[in-house]
């Protein structure tokens, strides 16, 4: 395992910060959206914005798979665990997302549901093998990064003839969400959301490559820099965006050439295409229905599709009325613009999705940045 | 001459035997377990009396007693660097020690699950006995219960410790004052990550070992140095971040930490990164936080570093006035952030 200190070096950061400050034109403002919650988390946790000049704004995007998973989808999973008696497996973060009736998967577990936290899809396969007389359902969530492992799980289950395993698929697509934001009235017409470029998530691009972003750059004239998740990577990405804006360029650049190529991982893409197809539409928590923004399991693999196997019907559930998540996910508002931020809505009692995972914009600001909202009293 | 033969009880089959319900039933089997395993390992005058409780003599006039209790439910029971046995001693000894007291006696209560191997129990009990001996405490009373298979997790151990507080000493979490300095006795996150790497079968280049240890000796040296220590606490569950937030709240102050001065082993840091966890929130079992007056900080640090359990001690921050009781940190990176209370459990990120 590689140690990570070299990407968090404070001196390098200071050097980079002054390069950014020199590059940024004092006569204008820069607004960049980091699409992915992983970047939001890194920026907040390391206090990256403190190192940026005041005319560079970072806008938090919708890229946290936990945040965008709508209540109704979790309700389906809870129903499977409590009413159908399945072993429900999922990644850690998902357990805390609030669902209907004051429940969450963690609370469903306390009520007797067999809910298990897994670290990889290999764990799901093992659980299915070890419990041949039980039905095992994997609640799959995530962007392009976590999709190939789910595809592999389904393929392996089919090859091994494992009959007690199915997947409740909620995989969503980064490019569709970015298009959705660029097509939103705030960006297109009203101009309330100045957006000069995107920091793109590197882990997504290790799978899909940088190519899928090329048409944004062309059609929407927005530069995109694919960046790693270390704070220095993010800062390097910001510098590259500033330079593109200054030079009037709108291209896709790759900061994370350590692992990302233009074409991405073809093998993974082929596997994903074999198992999944586009969903016509999918509800994102906070963004609403987004056309062609998610994946479903192909009919050849219907036996492994929990939605088909249990005849599940999705019913949308409305968010709390006061919640501003939708505007926050589109970058139009800041967490503190929400009336219930930090009072009714906290990480302990999240009302909206942005407060759930530590990668959500509201949770990140609450956890790491709240001191900025109040005056500091000197020692 | 009497024809009654002397009773013969076959010794416990420690190698192959397992706990069954009779070991908690109050009859011969239980008496035998206590005698051959617990009393033999903890061997001392109080236990030998075989009473329901222990009669303890006050060791010094004018001293006060400190009592603390802790239930231990760790899984796995055996982990790199320790096991539930020594942990159950260290945890309680440390709770007593950070109050400034000298730990003297422990009570231990065992909840055993039917089917638990006697060999494992013996290992655990011996590890407890060793830990108690080197911490200078006696296990003077105890209790054993057996629950049905499936109703426990092998073994749960609750220990209660009693220690004596010297006259005039008064450490408390509400005594941190603006201007004070925060010290930490070594690297953070070792215990929690040792447990997690074993539980999740994560293999790292270097094994991560628990830091479980009894801190009474370190505390004694620190107190003997005459430094103006105001608060001592061991950052166990919830880690350093939780402990500091507790103290900040109790004392009604804010804190300013410097991330680059907080020691973390590179392998722990890498493991945390891998799982998406923050070492500030990971449990420790052999570390303490001290808060003292600024003029005493240098001297106290030297005393801590001179003790084997405090070799990597560091000054990690300061206390300041803040009505919001925020614990803030200057990141290694040069930015600033809150170090907030943990919400719920720390769970690994998904991507
Ligand atoms: S503070 Fe809570 S309710 Fe308001 S926008 Fe954020 S997550 Fe939604």
From TrEMBL, chain A:
Matching InterPro entries: Hyd_form_HypD, HypD_1, HypD_2_sf
Highest taxon, organism lineage: Bacteria
Keyword Iron recorded: yes
Pfam families with a match to the protein in the record: HypD
Keywords: Iron, Metal-binding
GO molecular function: 4 iron, 4 sulfur cluster binding; carbon monoxide binding; iron ion binding
A biological process term (GO) from this entry: protein maturation
Family in the record: Belongs to the HypD family.
Name recorded for this polypeptide: Hydrogenase maturation factor
């Amino acid at each position: 395992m590689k140690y990570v200190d070299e990407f968090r070096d404070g001196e390098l950061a200071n050097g980079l910060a002054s390069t950014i400050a020199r590059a940024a034109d004092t006569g204008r403002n820069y607004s960049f959206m980091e699409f992915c919650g992983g970047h939001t988390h890194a920026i907040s946790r390391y206090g990256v914005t403190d190192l940026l000049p005041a005319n560079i704004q970072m806008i938090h995007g919708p890229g946290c798979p936990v945040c965008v998973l709508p209540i109704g989808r979790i309700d389906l999973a809870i129903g499977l665990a409590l009413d159908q008696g399945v072993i429900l497996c999922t990644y850690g973060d998902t357990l805390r997302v609030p669902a209907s009736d004051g429940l969450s998967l963690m609370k469903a577990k306390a009520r007797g549901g067999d809910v298990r936290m897994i670290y990889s899809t290999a764990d799901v396969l093992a659980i299915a093998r070890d419990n041949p007389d039980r039905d095992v359902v994997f609640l799959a969530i995530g962007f392009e990064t976590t999709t190939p492992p789910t595809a592999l799980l389904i393929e392996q289950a089919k090859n091994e003839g494992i009959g007690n395993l199915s997947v409740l698929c909620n995989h969503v697509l980064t490019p569709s969400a970015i298009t959705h934001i660029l097509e939103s009235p705030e960006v297109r017409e009203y101009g309330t959301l100045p957006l000069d470029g995107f920091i793109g998530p590197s882990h997504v691009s290790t799978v899909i490559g940088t190519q899928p972003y090329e048409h944004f750059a062309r059609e929407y004239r927005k530069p995109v820099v694919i960046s790693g998740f270390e704070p220095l990577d993010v800062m390097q990405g910001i510098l590259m965006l500033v330079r593109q804006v200054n030079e009037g360029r709108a291209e896709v650049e790759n900061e994370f050439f350590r692992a990302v190529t233009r074409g991405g991982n073809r093998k993974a893409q082929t596997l994903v295409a074999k198992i999944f197809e586009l969903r016509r539409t999918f509800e994102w928590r906070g963004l609403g229905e987004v056309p062609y923004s998610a994946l479903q399991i192909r009919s050849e693999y219907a036996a492994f599709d929990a939605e088909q196997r249990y005849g599940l019907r999705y019913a949308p559930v409305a968010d709390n009325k006061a919640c501003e998540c939708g505007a926050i996910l589109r970058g139009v508002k800041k967490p503190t613009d929400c009336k219930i931020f930090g009072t009714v809505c906290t990480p302990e009692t999240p009302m909206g999705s942005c407060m759930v995972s530590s990668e959500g914009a509201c949770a990140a600001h609450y956890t790491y940045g709240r001191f900025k909202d109040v005056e500091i009293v000197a020692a | 001459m009497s024809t009654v033969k002397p009773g013969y009880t076959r010794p416990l089959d420690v190698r192959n035997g397992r706990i069954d319900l009779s070991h908690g039933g109050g009859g011969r089997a239980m008496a035998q377990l206590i005698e051959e395993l617990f009393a033999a390992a903890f061997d001392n005058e109080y236990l030998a009396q075989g009473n329901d409780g222990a009669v303890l003599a006050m060791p010094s006039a004018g001293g006060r007693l400190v009592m603390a209790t802790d239930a231990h439910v760790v899984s796995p029971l055996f982990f790199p660097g320790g096991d539930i046995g020594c942990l159950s001693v260290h945890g309680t000894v440390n709770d007593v020690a950070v109050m400034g007291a000298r730990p003297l006696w422990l009570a231990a209560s065992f909840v055993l699950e039917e089917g638990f191997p006697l060999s494992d129990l013996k290992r655990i009990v011996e590890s407890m006995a060793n830990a108690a001996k080197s911490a200078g405490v006696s296990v003077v009373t105890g209790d054993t219960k057996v629950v049905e298979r499936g109703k426990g997790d092998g073994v749960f151990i609750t220990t209660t410790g009693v220690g004596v507080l010297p006259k005039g000493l008064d450490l408390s979490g509400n005594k941190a004052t603006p201007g004070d300095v925060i010290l930490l006795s070594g690297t953070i996150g070792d215990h929690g990550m040792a447990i997690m790497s074993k539980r999740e079968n994560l293999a790292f280049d270097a094994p991560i070992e628990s830091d479980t240890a009894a801190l009474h000796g370190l505390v004694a040296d620190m107190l003997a140095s005459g430094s103006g220590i105001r608060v001592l606490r061991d950052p166990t569950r919830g880690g350093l971040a939780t402990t500091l937030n507790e103290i900040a709240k109790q004392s009604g102050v804010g804190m300013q930490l410097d991330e680059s001065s907080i020691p973390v082993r590179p392998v722990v840091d890498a493991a945390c990164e891998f799982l998406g966890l923050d070492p500030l929130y990971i449990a420790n079992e052999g570390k303490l936080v001290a808060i003292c007056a600024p003029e005493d900080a240098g001297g106290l640090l030297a005393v801590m570093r001179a003790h084997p359990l405090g070799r990597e001690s560091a000054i990690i921050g300061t206390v300041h006035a803040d009505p919001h009781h925020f614990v803030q940190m200057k990141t290694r990176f040069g930015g600033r952030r809150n170090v907030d209370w943990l919400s719920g459990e720390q769970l690994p990120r998904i991507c």
